[in-house]
């Protein structure tokens, strides 16, 4: 009988985001399946209705070796300050605290993985005039489309 030992090393991504998102803000234009996503996440009725009524504006800023994802609404503003590929504690808009890792999967694609509780994946794809977010939990997928405003 042969025995094998497999050693897997985690390596940091060398991919850098392109400058396509720099100096731009994106405003929510439409959502598909957002309430179902919030329901699968366990968000209560009141917070679901509140979340569906707000129109967020998103921008990403580079700050030295950190990136800052800003989401601004009339209700609450959220900032995620992160280094790519490094775990941090995130407080979500619905009040959960979770370990999170954000990676650059291509020059325009940012993937955010929330690791605690039910795993959530949020993919942000930046384009010249649009940002497309795909949020996934269990088998529920939501898409949110943002239009460039600056």
From TrEMBL:
- Phosphoprotein: is it a keyword of this entry? no
Q: Any idea which UniProt keywords this protein has?
A: Lipid-binding, Transport
The signal peptide here is: none
Domain Cytosolic fatty-acid binding proteins as annotated: residue spans: 24-41
Keyword Cell membrane found:
no
GO MF annotation terms: lipid binding
Database matches in SUPFAM superfamilies: Lipocalins (SSF50814)
Q: Name one Pfam family in it.
A: Lipocalin
Q: Which family does it belong to?
A: Belongs to the calycin superfamily. Fatty-acid binding protein (FABP) family.
Read off the PANTHER family from this record.
FATTY ACID BINDING PROTEIN
What is this protein's name?
A: CSON006049 protein
Native species: Culicoides sonorensis
